[in-house]
Amino acid sequence: MRIAIFSWEYPPFIFGGLGVYTVNMAKTFVEMGNEVSIFSLNYDSREIEEQGKLTIYRPSFLDTSSIFPLIASEELRGWGPHIKFFTDVLNYGFLSALKFIQLAKKFDVVAIHDWLSAFAGLILKEELRVPLAFHLHSIEEVRSPDGSETVKRIEKEMGKKADQIIAVSNSMKDFLISVGYEEEKISVCYNGCDPKVYDPKKVDTELVDELRKKYKVTGEVMFFIGRLVWFKGIYNLVQAMPLLLRKHPKAKLVMVGQGWDYPKLMSMIKKLGLQRKVMVINKWLSEKEKVAHYALADICVFPSINEPFGIVALEAMAMEKPVVVGAAGVSGFREQVIPAGKRRTGVHVNGNDPKDIAWGIEEALTSDAKRWGKNGRKRVVKEFTWHIAAKKTLALYERL
Protein backbone atom coordinates (compact mmCIF):
# COMPACT_ATOMS: atom_id res chain seq x y z
CA MET A 1 0.00 0.00 0.00
CA ARG A 2 0.84 3.68 -0.28
CA ILE A 3 0.46 5.09 3.22
CA ALA A 4 0.52 8.76 4.23
CA ILE A 5 1.37 9.31 7.90
CA PHE A 6 0.73 12.69 9.52
CA SER A 7 2.71 12.91 12.76
CA TRP A 8 4.06 16.16 14.18
CA GLU A 9 6.95 14.22 15.77
CA TYR A 10 9.67 12.73 13.62
CA PRO A 11 13.49 12.93 13.71
CA PRO A 12 15.35 15.14 14.19
CA PHE A 13 12.57 16.15 16.61
CA ILE A 14 11.16 13.54 19.00
CA PHE A 15 9.28 14.65 22.10
CA GLY A 16 7.78 11.39 23.35
CA GLY A 17 6.21 8.05 22.52
CA LEU A 18 4.49 9.28 19.35
CA GLY A 19 7.86 10.00 17.76
CA VAL A 20 9.17 6.57 18.75
CA TYR A 21 6.00 5.00 17.31
CA THR A 22 6.20 6.90 14.01
CA VAL A 23 9.86 6.06 13.38
CA ASN A 24 9.44 2.35 14.09
CA MET A 25 6.09 1.82 12.37
CA ALA A 26 7.18 3.66 9.22
CA LYS A 27 10.36 1.57 9.08
CA THR A 28 8.40 -1.66 9.60
CA PHE A 29 5.75 -0.76 7.02
CA VAL A 30 8.53 -0.26 4.45
CA GLU A 31 10.24 -3.52 5.43
CA MET A 32 6.88 -5.25 4.77
CA GLY A 33 6.79 -3.89 1.21
CA ASN A 34 4.73 -0.71 1.58
CA GLU A 35 5.49 2.82 0.40
CA VAL A 36 5.34 5.44 3.18
CA SER A 37 5.19 9.24 3.10
CA ILE A 38 5.49 11.10 6.39
CA PHE A 39 4.23 14.65 6.84
CA SER A 40 5.84 16.19 9.91
CA LEU A 41 6.39 19.54 11.59
CA ASN A 42 9.45 21.43 10.41
CA TYR A 43 11.97 22.52 13.04
CA ASP A 44 14.63 23.97 10.71
CA SER A 45 14.95 20.69 8.81
CA ARG A 46 15.10 19.77 5.14
CA GLU A 47 11.69 20.10 3.50
CA ILE A 48 11.94 16.82 1.59
CA GLU A 49 14.00 13.78 2.47
CA GLU A 50 13.93 10.54 0.49
CA GLN A 51 15.03 7.21 1.95
CA GLY A 52 14.07 4.57 -0.60
CA LYS A 53 10.37 3.77 -0.17
CA LEU A 54 10.17 6.27 2.70
CA THR A 55 9.76 10.00 2.00
CA ILE A 56 9.54 12.72 4.65
CA TYR A 57 7.83 16.05 3.94
CA ARG A 58 8.35 18.95 6.34
CA PRO A 59 6.76 22.10 4.85
CA SER A 60 8.35 25.34 6.05
CA PHE A 61 6.11 28.02 7.53
CA LEU A 62 6.24 31.49 9.04
CA ASP A 63 5.69 32.38 12.70
CA THR A 64 2.09 33.67 12.93
CA SER A 65 1.84 33.75 16.73
CA SER A 66 1.92 37.56 16.89
CA ILE A 67 -1.19 38.00 14.71
CA PHE A 68 -3.16 34.91 15.77
CA PRO A 69 -4.44 36.47 19.05
CA LEU A 70 -6.32 39.04 16.93
CA ILE A 71 -8.70 36.31 15.77
CA ALA A 72 -8.30 33.64 18.46
CA SER A 73 -10.90 32.71 21.06
CA GLU A 74 -10.51 33.90 24.63
CA GLU A 75 -9.43 30.39 25.65
CA LEU A 76 -6.61 30.26 23.09
CA ARG A 77 -5.43 33.76 24.00
CA GLY A 78 -5.13 32.37 27.52
CA TRP A 79 -2.41 30.00 26.32
CA GLY A 80 0.00 32.94 26.64
CA PRO A 81 3.47 32.10 25.25
CA HIS A 82 2.25 28.58 24.38
CA ILE A 83 0.06 30.06 21.65
CA LYS A 84 3.11 29.85 19.34
CA PHE A 85 2.95 26.06 19.67
CA PHE A 86 -0.72 26.13 18.65
CA THR A 87 -0.04 28.33 15.62
CA ASP A 88 2.89 26.12 14.58
CA VAL A 89 0.59 23.09 14.71
CA LEU A 90 -2.09 24.96 12.76
CA ASN A 91 0.38 26.01 10.05
CA TYR A 92 1.82 22.50 9.90
CA GLY A 93 -1.67 21.10 9.34
CA PHE A 94 -2.63 23.56 6.59
CA LEU A 95 0.64 23.34 4.68
CA SER A 96 0.98 19.57 5.02
CA ALA A 97 -2.53 19.12 3.62
CA LEU A 98 -1.66 21.45 0.74
CA LYS A 99 1.56 19.53 0.05
CA PHE A 100 -0.36 16.24 0.07
CA ILE A 101 -2.84 17.58 -2.51
CA GLN A 102 -0.08 19.08 -4.69
CA LEU A 103 1.69 15.71 -4.89
CA ALA A 104 -1.24 14.39 -6.94
CA LYS A 105 -0.20 10.92 -5.84
CA LYS A 106 -2.73 8.20 -5.18
CA PHE A 107 -2.52 7.11 -1.53
CA ASP A 108 -4.43 4.09 -0.27
CA VAL A 109 -4.84 5.42 3.26
CA VAL A 110 -4.13 8.51 5.34
CA ALA A 111 -3.12 8.01 8.99
CA ILE A 112 -3.67 11.01 11.27
CA HIS A 113 -1.97 10.84 14.67
CA ASP A 114 -3.58 12.77 17.55
CA TRP A 115 -5.08 16.28 17.43
CA LEU A 116 -1.72 17.73 16.44
CA SER A 117 -2.23 16.43 12.90
CA ALA A 118 -6.01 16.70 12.85
CA PHE A 119 -6.13 20.03 11.00
CA ALA A 120 -4.59 18.27 8.00
CA GLY A 121 -6.98 15.34 8.37
CA LEU A 122 -10.08 17.54 8.50
CA ILE A 123 -9.00 19.46 5.39
CA LEU A 124 -8.17 16.32 3.41
CA LYS A 125 -11.45 14.69 4.34
CA GLU A 126 -13.26 17.72 2.89
CA GLU A 127 -11.13 18.03 -0.25
CA LEU A 128 -10.56 14.38 -1.20
CA ARG A 129 -12.30 11.05 -0.97
CA VAL A 130 -9.47 9.26 0.80
CA PRO A 131 -9.75 6.52 3.46
CA LEU A 132 -8.67 8.06 6.77
CA ALA A 133 -7.62 6.42 10.03
CA PHE A 134 -7.42 8.54 13.18
CA HIS A 135 -4.85 7.14 15.62
CA LEU A 136 -5.49 8.27 19.18
CA HIS A 137 -2.49 7.84 21.44
CA SER A 138 -4.22 10.03 24.02
CA ILE A 139 -6.92 12.72 24.22
CA GLU A 140 -7.27 15.97 26.14
CA GLU A 141 -9.60 14.45 28.77
CA VAL A 142 -6.83 11.96 29.62
CA ARG A 143 -3.95 14.45 29.54
CA SER A 144 -5.82 17.06 31.54
CA PRO A 145 -9.50 16.71 32.55
CA ASP A 146 -9.79 20.51 32.80
CA GLY A 147 -7.77 21.05 29.62
CA SER A 148 -8.45 22.92 26.41
CA GLU A 149 -12.02 22.85 25.11
CA THR A 150 -10.62 23.82 21.69
CA VAL A 151 -8.42 20.72 21.57
CA LYS A 152 -11.35 18.54 22.70
CA ARG A 153 -13.50 19.92 19.84
CA ILE A 154 -10.73 19.26 17.30
CA GLU A 155 -10.34 15.66 18.50
CA LYS A 156 -14.09 15.00 18.51
CA GLU A 157 -14.56 16.46 15.01
CA MET A 158 -11.69 14.37 13.63
CA GLY A 159 -13.23 11.31 15.29
CA LYS A 160 -16.55 12.00 13.54
CA LYS A 161 -14.97 12.53 10.11
CA ALA A 162 -12.52 9.59 10.29
CA ASP A 163 -13.43 6.25 8.72
CA GLN A 164 -11.61 4.36 11.46
CA ILE A 165 -10.39 5.25 14.96
CA ILE A 166 -7.42 3.27 16.24
CA ALA A 167 -6.83 3.28 20.00
CA VAL A 168 -3.58 2.12 21.60
CA SER A 169 -5.22 -0.02 24.30
CA ASN A 170 -8.56 -1.44 25.42
CA SER A 171 -8.47 0.94 28.36
CA MET A 172 -8.19 3.84 25.91
CA LYS A 173 -11.03 2.43 23.80
CA ASP A 174 -13.32 2.16 26.81
CA PHE A 175 -12.55 5.75 27.78
CA LEU A 176 -13.19 7.02 24.25
CA ILE A 177 -16.61 5.38 24.28
CA SER A 178 -17.36 6.88 27.71
CA VAL A 179 -16.80 10.43 26.40
CA GLY A 180 -18.88 10.00 23.25
CA TYR A 181 -16.73 8.51 20.47
CA GLU A 182 -18.50 6.05 18.15
CA GLU A 183 -17.85 2.53 19.45
CA GLU A 184 -18.33 0.85 16.07
CA LYS A 185 -15.51 2.91 14.59
CA ILE A 186 -12.93 2.05 17.25
CA SER A 187 -10.38 -0.75 16.97
CA VAL A 188 -7.45 -1.46 19.27
CA CYS A 189 -3.89 -1.90 18.09
CA TYR A 190 -1.06 -1.96 20.62
CA ASN A 191 2.25 -0.19 20.15
CA GLY A 192 5.44 -2.22 20.00
CA CYS A 193 9.11 -2.52 20.82
CA ASP A 194 12.22 -3.82 19.07
CA PRO A 195 13.70 -6.60 21.24
CA LYS A 196 16.74 -6.73 18.94
CA VAL A 197 17.64 -3.20 20.08
CA TYR A 198 16.47 -3.55 23.68
CA ASP A 199 18.44 -6.68 24.39
CA PRO A 200 20.37 -7.28 27.64
CA LYS A 201 22.96 -9.20 25.63
CA LYS A 202 23.82 -6.14 23.52
CA VAL A 203 24.71 -3.68 26.25
CA ASP A 204 27.78 -1.42 26.17
CA THR A 205 29.15 -2.46 29.57
CA GLU A 206 31.78 0.30 29.55
CA LEU A 207 29.01 2.90 29.20
CA VAL A 208 27.07 1.28 32.06
CA ASP A 209 30.21 1.47 34.26
CA GLU A 210 30.59 5.14 33.33
CA LEU A 211 26.98 5.79 34.37
CA ARG A 212 27.54 3.93 37.63
CA LYS A 213 30.45 6.27 38.44
CA LYS A 214 28.61 9.37 37.19
CA TYR A 215 25.61 8.74 39.44
CA LYS A 216 27.79 7.47 42.31
CA VAL A 217 25.80 4.26 42.58
CA THR A 218 26.39 2.20 45.71
CA GLY A 219 22.96 0.61 46.11
CA GLU A 220 19.72 -0.11 44.26
CA VAL A 221 18.85 1.96 41.18
CA MET A 222 15.31 2.91 40.24
CA PHE A 223 14.92 4.26 36.70
CA PHE A 224 12.24 6.48 35.17
CA ILE A 225 12.22 7.73 31.59
CA GLY A 226 9.46 9.82 30.04
CA ARG A 227 8.12 13.32 29.70
CA LEU A 228 8.55 15.40 32.83
CA VAL A 229 4.87 16.25 33.21
CA TRP A 230 2.59 15.75 36.20
CA PHE A 231 0.41 12.99 34.73
CA LYS A 232 3.47 10.73 34.42
CA GLY A 233 3.38 10.56 38.24
CA ILE A 234 6.77 12.26 38.61
CA TYR A 235 5.93 14.22 41.77
CA ASN A 236 4.48 11.19 43.54
CA LEU A 237 7.51 9.13 42.53
CA VAL A 238 9.88 11.65 44.13
CA GLN A 239 7.67 11.77 47.24
CA ALA A 240 7.92 7.98 47.45
CA MET A 241 11.71 8.11 47.79
CA PRO A 242 11.91 9.15 51.50
CA LEU A 243 9.65 6.19 52.32
CA LEU A 244 11.83 3.81 50.31
CA LEU A 245 15.09 5.15 51.76
CA ARG A 246 14.08 4.04 55.26
CA LYS A 247 14.74 0.43 54.23
CA HIS A 248 17.13 1.08 51.34
CA PRO A 249 19.33 4.02 52.39
CA LYS A 250 21.73 3.57 49.45
CA ALA A 251 19.01 3.55 46.78
CA LYS A 252 18.97 6.15 44.00
CA LEU A 253 16.36 7.29 41.53
CA VAL A 254 17.50 8.27 38.03
CA MET A 255 14.95 10.25 36.02
CA VAL A 256 15.42 11.04 32.32
CA GLY A 257 13.28 13.28 30.16
CA GLN A 258 12.12 16.74 29.23
CA GLY A 259 8.88 18.56 29.90
CA TRP A 260 7.28 21.72 31.20
CA ASP A 261 7.25 20.48 34.82
CA TYR A 262 11.05 20.19 35.06
CA PRO A 263 11.57 23.40 37.12
CA LYS A 264 8.84 22.46 39.59
CA LEU A 265 10.24 18.92 39.86
CA MET A 266 13.73 20.22 40.68
CA SER A 267 12.25 22.56 43.28
CA MET A 268 10.49 19.63 44.97
CA ILE A 269 13.68 17.52 45.01
CA LYS A 270 15.55 20.39 46.67
CA LYS A 271 12.75 21.01 49.18
CA LEU A 272 12.80 17.33 50.21
CA GLY A 273 16.60 17.34 50.45
CA LEU A 274 16.93 14.58 47.85
CA GLN A 275 19.59 16.17 45.60
CA ARG A 276 21.99 13.25 46.19
CA LYS A 277 19.30 10.59 45.89
CA VAL A 278 17.34 11.74 42.83
CA MET A 279 19.28 12.45 39.64
CA VAL A 280 17.39 14.22 36.82
CA ILE A 281 18.82 14.19 33.30
CA ASN A 282 16.88 16.86 31.41
CA LYS A 283 17.45 15.63 27.85
CA TRP A 284 16.51 12.87 25.46
CA LEU A 285 18.98 10.03 25.22
CA SER A 286 20.36 8.28 22.17
CA GLU A 287 19.16 4.69 21.84
CA LYS A 288 22.57 3.43 22.99
CA GLU A 289 22.42 5.63 26.10
CA LYS A 290 18.86 4.58 26.81
CA VAL A 291 19.76 0.87 26.64
CA ALA A 292 22.67 1.49 29.03
CA HIS A 293 20.38 3.25 31.52
CA TYR A 294 17.94 0.34 31.44
CA ALA A 295 20.88 -2.02 32.02
CA LEU A 296 22.00 0.07 35.01
CA ALA A 297 18.58 -0.15 36.66
CA ASP A 298 17.41 -2.70 39.19
CA ILE A 299 13.77 -1.62 38.87
CA CYS A 300 12.06 0.51 36.23
CA VAL A 301 9.26 2.69 37.61
CA PHE A 302 6.56 4.38 35.52
CA PRO A 303 3.84 5.49 37.97
CA SER A 304 1.65 7.34 35.47
CA ILE A 305 -1.66 8.73 36.68
CA ASN A 306 -2.99 8.22 33.15
CA GLU A 307 -1.11 6.34 30.40
CA PRO A 308 -3.09 5.09 27.36
CA PHE A 309 -0.18 2.81 26.42
CA GLY A 310 3.41 3.52 27.51
CA ILE A 311 6.14 2.10 25.25
CA VAL A 312 8.75 2.48 28.01
CA ALA A 313 7.32 -0.50 29.89
CA LEU A 314 7.92 -2.70 26.83
CA GLU A 315 11.49 -1.42 26.50
CA ALA A 316 12.19 -2.16 30.16
CA MET A 317 10.66 -5.65 29.94
CA ALA A 318 12.65 -6.38 26.77
CA MET A 319 15.74 -5.49 28.82
CA GLU A 320 14.63 -8.11 31.40
CA LYS A 321 13.84 -5.51 34.04
CA PRO A 322 10.96 -5.83 36.52
CA VAL A 323 8.57 -2.90 36.20
CA VAL A 324 6.41 -0.96 38.62
CA VAL A 325 3.62 0.80 36.71
CA GLY A 326 0.67 3.06 37.38
CA ALA A 327 -2.49 1.05 36.79
CA ALA A 328 -5.20 3.47 37.89
CA GLY A 329 -7.22 5.61 35.47
CA VAL A 330 -6.73 5.08 31.72
CA SER A 331 -3.86 2.59 31.72
CA GLY A 332 -2.39 0.59 28.88
CA PHE A 333 0.24 -0.51 31.42
CA ARG A 334 -2.43 -2.77 32.95
CA GLU A 335 -2.58 -4.67 29.66
CA GLN A 336 1.20 -5.00 29.27
CA VAL A 337 2.38 -5.83 32.77
CA ILE A 338 1.27 -9.08 34.43
CA PRO A 339 1.09 -8.44 38.21
CA ALA A 340 0.71 -11.98 39.57
CA GLY A 341 1.21 -15.68 38.84
CA LYS A 342 3.89 -17.68 37.06
CA ARG A 343 4.08 -15.22 34.15
CA ARG A 344 4.42 -12.17 36.40
CA THR A 345 6.43 -9.26 34.98
CA GLY A 346 5.93 -6.51 37.55
CA VAL A 347 3.72 -4.61 39.98
CA HIS A 348 0.60 -2.49 39.49
CA VAL A 349 0.35 0.59 41.72
CA ASN A 350 -1.81 3.67 42.13
CA GLY A 351 0.23 6.47 40.56
CA ASN A 352 -1.68 9.01 42.66
CA ASP A 353 -0.30 7.58 45.92
CA PRO A 354 3.39 7.90 46.93
CA LYS A 355 2.92 5.24 49.61
CA ASP A 356 1.63 2.75 47.05
CA ILE A 357 4.50 3.56 44.68
CA ALA A 358 7.01 2.98 47.51
CA TRP A 359 5.24 -0.30 48.35
CA GLY A 360 5.45 -1.41 44.69
CA ILE A 361 9.18 -0.71 44.47
CA GLU A 362 9.78 -2.53 47.75
CA GLU A 363 7.74 -5.47 46.45
CA ALA A 364 9.94 -5.64 43.34
CA LEU A 365 13.19 -5.28 45.29
CA THR A 366 12.36 -8.08 47.70
CA SER A 367 10.80 -10.55 45.26
CA ASP A 368 12.05 -12.84 42.50
CA ALA A 369 12.64 -9.87 40.21
CA LYS A 370 15.05 -11.71 37.89
CA ARG A 371 12.31 -14.18 37.00
CA TRP A 372 9.93 -11.30 36.35
CA GLY A 373 12.50 -9.81 34.01
CA LYS A 374 12.87 -13.06 32.04
CA ASN A 375 9.08 -13.30 31.80
CA GLY A 376 8.91 -9.71 30.58
CA ARG A 377 11.26 -10.25 27.67
CA LYS A 378 9.41 -13.41 26.62
CA ARG A 379 6.15 -11.46 26.68
CA VAL A 380 7.50 -8.64 24.50
CA VAL A 381 9.00 -11.04 21.94
CA LYS A 382 5.78 -13.03 21.71
CA GLU A 383 3.15 -10.25 21.76
CA PHE A 384 4.57 -6.73 21.45
CA THR A 385 7.05 -6.38 18.59
CA TRP A 386 6.75 -3.63 15.98
CA HIS A 387 6.18 -6.33 13.35
CA ILE A 388 3.10 -7.57 15.24
CA ALA A 389 1.84 -3.99 15.66
CA ALA A 390 2.41 -3.18 11.98
CA LYS A 391 0.69 -6.38 10.79
CA LYS A 392 -2.46 -5.61 12.82
CA THR A 393 -2.46 -1.97 11.73
CA LEU A 394 -2.08 -2.88 8.06
CA ALA A 395 -5.04 -5.27 8.36
CA LEU A 396 -7.18 -2.32 9.56
CA TYR A 397 -5.89 -0.13 6.72
CA GLU A 398 -6.68 -2.85 4.17
CA ARG A 399 -10.29 -2.94 5.39
CA LEU A 400 -10.55 0.77 4.64
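[next item in queue]
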Amino acid sequence: MHELSLMEGVLEIIQASADKEGFAHVRRVILRIGALSGVEPEAMRFCFDSVVAGTLAEGAELEILEVPGLGLCQACGRTGAMETRFDPCPHCGMVQMQVTSGTEMRIEALDVE
Protein backbone atom coordinates (compact mmCIF):
# COMPACT_ATOMS: atom_id res chain seq x y z
CA MET A 1 0.00 0.00 0.00
CA HIS A 2 1.95 3.02 -1.25
CA GLU A 3 -0.73 5.32 0.18
CA LEU A 4 0.84 4.87 3.62
CA SER A 5 4.14 6.34 2.41
CA LEU A 6 2.24 9.08 0.54
CA MET A 7 0.39 10.02 3.72
CA GLU A 8 3.69 10.07 5.61
CA GLY A 9 4.96 12.48 2.94
CA VAL A 10 1.88 14.65 3.44
CA LEU A 11 2.64 14.77 7.15
CA GLU A 12 6.24 15.80 6.43
CA ILE A 13 4.99 18.66 4.27
CA ILE A 14 2.56 19.72 7.00
CA GLN A 15 5.33 19.66 9.61
CA ALA A 16 7.66 21.68 7.35
CA SER A 17 4.87 24.22 6.82
CA ALA A 18 4.31 24.43 10.60
CA ASP A 19 8.01 25.04 11.16
CA LYS A 20 8.04 27.78 8.52
CA GLU A 21 4.66 29.42 9.28
CA GLY A 22 4.60 28.89 13.06
CA PHE A 23 1.29 27.13 13.56
CA ALA A 24 0.88 24.53 16.31
CA HIS A 25 -2.21 22.53 15.36
CA VAL A 26 -3.98 21.42 12.20
CA ARG A 27 -7.79 21.20 12.27
CA ARG A 28 -8.36 20.13 8.68
CA VAL A 29 -6.30 18.82 5.78
CA ILE A 30 -7.71 19.11 2.26
CA LEU A 31 -6.11 16.88 -0.36
CA ARG A 32 -6.75 17.04 -4.10
CA ILE A 33 -6.44 13.59 -5.69
CA GLY A 34 -6.89 12.93 -9.39
CA ALA A 35 -8.69 9.87 -10.72
CA LEU A 36 -5.66 9.04 -12.89
CA SER A 37 -3.04 9.57 -10.17
CA GLY A 38 -2.85 5.94 -9.09
CA VAL A 39 -3.75 7.00 -5.53
CA GLU A 40 -6.77 5.43 -3.84
CA PRO A 41 -8.67 8.06 -1.83
CA GLU A 42 -10.16 5.44 0.50
CA ALA A 43 -6.71 4.05 1.28
CA MET A 44 -5.53 7.59 2.09
CA ARG A 45 -8.48 8.00 4.46
CA PHE A 46 -7.65 4.65 6.06
CA CYS A 47 -4.02 5.67 6.68
CA PHE A 48 -4.65 9.20 7.87
CA ASP A 49 -5.48 8.72 11.57
CA SER A 50 -2.63 6.31 12.23
CA VAL A 51 -0.05 8.48 10.44
CA VAL A 52 -1.03 11.71 12.22
CA ALA A 53 -1.39 10.14 15.69
CA GLY A 54 0.81 11.99 18.17
CA THR A 55 1.54 14.87 15.74
CA LEU A 56 0.27 18.42 15.29
CA ALA A 57 -2.40 17.00 12.96
CA GLU A 58 -3.82 14.47 15.43
CA GLY A 59 -7.60 14.81 15.50
CA ALA A 60 -7.67 16.76 12.23
CA GLU A 61 -10.38 16.19 9.67
CA LEU A 62 -9.29 14.86 6.28
CA GLU A 63 -11.19 16.13 3.27
CA ILE A 64 -10.42 14.68 -0.15
CA LEU A 65 -11.40 16.47 -3.34
CA GLU A 66 -11.53 13.93 -6.14
CA VAL A 67 -10.59 15.32 -9.56
CA PRO A 68 -11.96 13.51 -12.61
CA GLY A 69 -9.68 12.41 -15.41
CA LEU A 70 -9.85 14.44 -18.60
CA GLY A 71 -8.03 14.14 -21.86
CA LEU A 72 -7.64 15.83 -25.22
CA CYS A 73 -8.06 13.58 -28.24
CA GLN A 74 -5.16 13.97 -30.65
CA ALA A 75 -7.35 12.63 -33.49
CA CYS A 76 -10.51 14.75 -33.23
CA GLY A 77 -9.34 17.57 -30.94
CA ARG A 78 -12.18 17.20 -28.46
CA THR A 79 -11.91 16.90 -24.68
CA GLY A 80 -13.47 13.97 -22.90
CA ALA A 81 -13.66 12.14 -19.59
CA MET A 82 -11.13 9.40 -18.85
CA GLU A 83 -11.39 6.69 -16.20
CA THR A 84 -8.01 5.17 -17.07
CA ARG A 85 -4.97 6.51 -18.90
CA PHE A 86 -5.70 4.28 -21.90
CA ASP A 87 -9.36 5.08 -22.47
CA PRO A 88 -10.45 5.76 -26.05
CA CYS A 89 -11.92 9.11 -26.98
CA PRO A 90 -15.59 9.16 -25.98
CA HIS A 91 -16.36 11.12 -29.17
CA CYS A 92 -14.48 9.37 -31.98
CA GLY A 93 -13.30 6.13 -30.35
CA MET A 94 -9.61 6.62 -31.16
CA VAL A 95 -7.04 5.72 -28.53
CA GLN A 96 -5.04 8.92 -28.83
CA MET A 97 -6.03 10.72 -25.65
CA GLN A 98 -3.52 13.05 -24.02
CA VAL A 99 -4.25 13.39 -20.29
CA THR A 100 -4.98 17.01 -19.33
CA SER A 101 -6.36 16.61 -15.80
CA GLY A 102 -6.65 14.03 -13.07
CA THR A 103 -3.04 13.04 -12.40
CA GLU A 104 -2.47 15.33 -9.42
CA MET A 105 -2.14 14.56 -5.74
CA ARG A 106 -1.45 17.59 -3.58
CA ILE A 107 -2.33 19.39 -0.41
CA GLU A 108 -4.99 21.88 -1.44
CA ALA A 109 -5.31 23.65 1.93
CA LEU A 110 -4.72 23.39 5.66
CA ASP A 111 -6.97 24.80 8.37
CA VAL A 112 -4.57 25.61 11.20
CA GLU A 113 -4.35 27.41 14.51
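[queue empty]
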